[in-house]
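Lecture 7 notes. Example A: sequence first, then its structure tokens.
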Amino acid sequence: ALKMGMVVEVQASAIDQSTLRATAQSVRFGAEVSGPVGSVDLATSSFTVLGQTVSVSNSTVFDNSLSGGLAGLAAGSLVEVHAHLNAATGQYQATRVEAMSATSRYKLRGTVSALDAAAKTFQSGTGVISYAGIAATDLPASFADGLKVRVKLGTAQINGQWVAGSSRFDVLDP
């Protein structure tokens, strides 16, 4: 269900110029990052999840289960972050933060950087992602630094790396 602060994407028909209306054909929503809080920095109004820096503001909505807002977050707690990615800074500006229950996978929508085809790793923020278990045919043809992807990750790091647990990467529009 839609909640205050969620980011939505609406695909719609062309605008009818006589009524200035369009018909929604699909509405998508979902967290940009979901996983464990790494650290909280009250001085900079930010926290990290999966190596991604997430900034909060006075307009960020915190789920009722997260009493105290940013100060109520603790390292290791699981959260879903609805946000906008600032391509210039590589940081997320949170619009909504929700507590999440235990899960079998984490999720990240981010930008590929420091791609290492030999090691089969890349970075997003400061998080290192291993895609060693993904078949080459399941990787995007345009897999390169700067590509925006959505990837599902296992819940445990191996050798300091988050492990891509899905059989494919989704390429996101720029």
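Example B, a different protein, same format:
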Amino acid sequence: ARRMVDGFDGSLARIRDVIERRAGLVSFACLHAAAHGFLPSLLGRFRARYPDVQVRVLDDTAARIVDHLGQGRAEFGIDMQRGDDPDPEFEFEPIASEPYVVACAPDHAVADMTAVSWAELAKLDYLAFGLDSGIGRQLAVPQQRLRWSYEVQHLGSMLALIQSGFGIGVVPYSAIHGHPSLTFRPIAD
């Protein structure tokens, strides 16, 4: 316990030191979905306030976020809340909540719908997230009812397949909102 507390205090001290000096390096681990979704906006605001701070982003799968923290490669991590037992070595603090939406190409039949139910998704060419992905773990139960055509682990792969016409997928709102060549519809249930 003392080692954990000392490690946590050391990480906070390093972050405080970087912020107070307004220079140095901050390393953090985050999901691909976060890096693709809200991270550019967040880092833009951070750069404006702390232009001399270097930021190392360890964008990775959910399965590796805790590894980066445990190995000391990152001061903090951005991960999705997990349904399984959390790692007792780390504290989880929710910072945001967002809905999942159905992503599709603008000419896909789903684009003409107001909202899409999981039952309707079962009739379509569905692209699934695997369980190595945080999104896949959160969607594990509803995805079990679907027959998927392709399974991916990374958000970028999902969006590329949707854009190329392989089907539709369920993604976090921040990942698709404002996407230049894809559209989305809410999930009805």
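Note on Example B: The longest helix spans residues 2-21. The radius of gyration is 19 Å.
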